[in-house]
């Protein structure tokens, strides 16, 4: 546990020492501000983040989180620091969890900046606190899944660009295309594609519902990607 | 300390390490010597638990590198060939991070960092980001990291590569010092380095051990191929004939001094000749040669033994290995 914490702190620290993190924060703030300003913050609109979270926030995260995760492991593969890391007395699981929580901590900072919008809304309307908390829980699950998937692709290649593109592709597919594809097929395939649709699972959190079905979906898919990442790192030894 | 038995490593169809066995006793410096691509780094990576072997076993301090990997990794300090470091971290931060990964307490980290900073001369750049450091400085940071937890076994893969001559000398003396308290295993393709720093040497070529022993032993094994060189002035045929008759002389070659062809005629006129004498094993003919020269009234201006260096030996054994390999 101490090792996971050490790894996570190093990763979080490394973000603030790299220009990418600041670029990511800038893109994130700009895009979320635009979504809020143009959609939610208008006369007679609903005093909630629903409009923003339904589509825009998901889209922004699909693009922003892979940029955060792309270098996590691929950079270690490229520079060779993976060798010093994997010959230290730490397990692959500790490495992967450390990197995951480091990126997740950075994501929490991004989410914290989002609090500006509910504060603005509460100044002009009646904000439903329970709904807001539910929205945030949904965002935590969504971000966790995206980070785990991005981390997996980061472990697959030493080229950051390939890692980020593969993550974009998979996340966009799972988030936006899955539902549409499900309409094209029948039977089991349809059920599977519908179940895989991240946006459908996330939507209930936006509406203010916490359904164990969705919680289980996010937890298992996140754990699955983390497991694959651990296996990928173990494979690295055999290369 | 290290016991390697029938170790084999394949990368696909490439056989990088071919059934090697050796043991390393506690204490001292072991040199792992071989041409590029001989399998040095592969063997080292197996011992440092980065790669698993394809066959055979290896133990460090009694722990198996594959089954008890974490135990081995706690006891080994490893400096990889390219000295990979995180460029954005400061030297001190990096060492602190590595100490934490190894589960060292705060006090242990503080005292250990002070200790390695002193022995690896990190003082002047301990607070600078690693990305700004020169190659030599980075090498010292990597070495400091490997020594941080006072490991039983220190494995250094080409520790002096990329350093300037002063740094190389300093690093070598540091490694020698370390050999007093730790067991050090270093790889190198520079013979001179191994000759100077190591107590034991293993020469590896094409994935096999071709020779092992102390540098002195290896040199002795090859010294029968050394020869005596004398420069004399006298009658050419006389010199040739008489020298050949000295007891213990196996063969001689006579050349006019100044091997360059343009100066040949001039030096022949001077009458100086260079006599290279091969001795029979166990003989020393220098004294007899001197006596012969003074007896005959030849002028002798040079007489010395051209010692066989480890380099000759190395070139010879690795060449042999390659030719035997070429013939299936």
| N- and C-termini, Cα separation of chain A | 28 Å
Strand content of chain A: under 5%
For this structure, what is the CATH homologous superfamily of the largest domain in chain B?
Answer: P-loop containing nucleotide triphosphate hydrolases
Mean pLDDT of chain A: 90
Number of helices of chain B: 12
Count of helix runs of chain A: 12
Segments of chain A where pLDDT lies below 50 for 5+ residues?
Answer: none
Which structural category do the helix and sheet elements of chain B fall into?
Answer: alpha/beta
How many β-strands of chain B, per DSSP?
14
**Number of DSSP E strands of chain A:** 0
- Given as residue ranges, the uncertain stretches of chain B (5+ residues, pLDDT < 50) are none
Oligomer class: heterodimer
Strand content of chain B: 25-35%
| Largest interface, C-beta closer than 8 angstroms, per-chain residues | A-B, 24 and 26 residues
Could you describe the 3D structure shown?
The complex is a heterodimer of chains A (239) and B (328). Chain A has 239 residues and is mainly α. Chain A has one domain (24-79, 108-238). Chain A contains twelve helices and no strands. The model of chain A has no long low-confidence stretch (mean pLDDT 90). Chain B has two domains: 2-221, 3-Layer(aba) Sandwich (Rossmann fold), CATH 3.40.50.300; 227-306, 2-Layer Sandwich (Alpha-Beta Plaits). Chain B has helices spanning 40-47, 69-75, 91-101, 106-119, 135-147, 165-181, 191-197, 215-223, 236-245, 264-270, 286-296, 310-326; strands spanning 2-11, 14-24, 28-33, 55-60, 63-64, 76-79, 153-157, 183-188, 200-205, 208-213, 227-233, 249-256, 272-279, 299-306. In chain B, the strands form three sheets. Chain B has a six-stranded mixed beta sheet with strand order 6-7-8-3-9-10, sandwiched between helices. The mean pLDDT of chain B is 84. Classes of the chains: A mainly alpha (239), B alpha/beta (328). The A-B interface holds A 2-3, 6-7, 10, 13-14, 17-18, 79-91, 237-238 and B 45, 48-52, 70, 73-74, 76, 78, 80, 82, 84-89, 97-98, 100-103, 145.
């Amino acid at each position: 546990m101490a090792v996971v914490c050490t790894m996570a702190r190093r990763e979080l620290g490394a973000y603030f020492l790299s220009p990418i993190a600041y670029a990511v924060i800038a893109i994130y703030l700009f895009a979320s501000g635009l979504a809020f300003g143009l959609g939610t913050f208008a006369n007679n609109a609903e005093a909630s983040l629903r409009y923003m979270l339904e589509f825009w926030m998901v889209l922004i995260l699909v693009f922003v989180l892979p940029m955060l995760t792309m270098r996590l492991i691929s950079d270690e593969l490229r520079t060779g620091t993976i060798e010093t890391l994997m010959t230290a007395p730490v397990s692959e699981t500790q490495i992967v969890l450390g990197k995951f929580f480091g990126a997740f901590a950075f994501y929490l900072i991004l989410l914290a900046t989002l609090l500006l919008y509910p504060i603005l809304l509460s100044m002009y309307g009646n904000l439903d606190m329970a709904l807001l908390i539910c929205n945030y829980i949904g965002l935590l699950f969504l971000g966790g899944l995206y980070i785990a998937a991005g981390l997996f692709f980061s472990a697959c290649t030493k080229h950051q660009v390939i890692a980020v593109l593969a993550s974009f592709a998979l996340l966009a597919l799972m988030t936006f295309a899955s539902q549409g594809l499900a309409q094209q097929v029948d039977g089991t395939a349809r059920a599977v594609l519908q179940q895989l649709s991240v946006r459908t699972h996330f939507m209930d959190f936006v509406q203010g519902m916490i359904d164990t079905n969705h919680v289980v979906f996010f937890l298992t898919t996140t754990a699955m990607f983390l497991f694959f990442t651990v296996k990928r790192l173990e494979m690295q030894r055999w290369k | 300390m290290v016991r390697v038995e029938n170790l084999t490593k394949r990368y696909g169809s490439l056989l990088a390490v071919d059934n090697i066995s050796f043991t390393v006793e506690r204490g001292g410096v072991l040199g792992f010597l071989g041409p590029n691509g001989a399998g040095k780094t592969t063997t080292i990576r197996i011992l440092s638990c980065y790669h698993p072997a394809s066959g055979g076993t290896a133990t460090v301090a009694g722990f198996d590198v594959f089954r008890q990997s974490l135990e081995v990794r706690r006891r080994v300090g490893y400096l990889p060939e390219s000295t990979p470091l995180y460029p954005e971290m400061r030297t001190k931060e990096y060492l602190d991070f590595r100490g934490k990964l190894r589960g060292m307490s705060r006090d242990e980290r503080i005292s250990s960092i002070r200790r390695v900073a002193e022995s690896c001369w990190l003082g002047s750049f301990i607070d600078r980001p690693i990305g700004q450091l020169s190659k030599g400085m980075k090498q010292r940071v990597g070495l400091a990291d490997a020594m941080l937890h006072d490991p039983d076994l220190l494995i250094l893969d080409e520790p002096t590569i990329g350093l300037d001559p002063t740094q190389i000398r300093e690093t070598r003396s540091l490694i020698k010092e370390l050999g007093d308290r730790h067991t050090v295993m270093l790889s190198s393709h520079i013979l001179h380095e191994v000759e100077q720093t190591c107590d034991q040497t293993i020469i590896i070529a094409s994935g096999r051990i071709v020779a092992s022993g102390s540098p002195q032993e290896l040199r002795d094994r090859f010294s029968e191929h050394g020869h005596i060189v004398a420069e004399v002035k006298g009658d050419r045929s006389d010199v040739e004939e008489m020298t050949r008759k000295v007891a213990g002389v196996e063969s001689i070659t006579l050349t006019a001094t100044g091997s360059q062809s343009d100066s040949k005629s001039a030096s022949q006129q001077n009458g100086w000749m260079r006599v290279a004498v091969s001795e029979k094993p166990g003989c020393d003919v220098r004294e007899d040669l001197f006596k012969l020269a003074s007896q005959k009234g030849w002028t002798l201006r040079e007489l010395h033994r051209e010692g066989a260096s480890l380099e000759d030996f190395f070139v010879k054994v690795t060449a042999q290995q390659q030719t035997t390999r070429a013939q299936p």
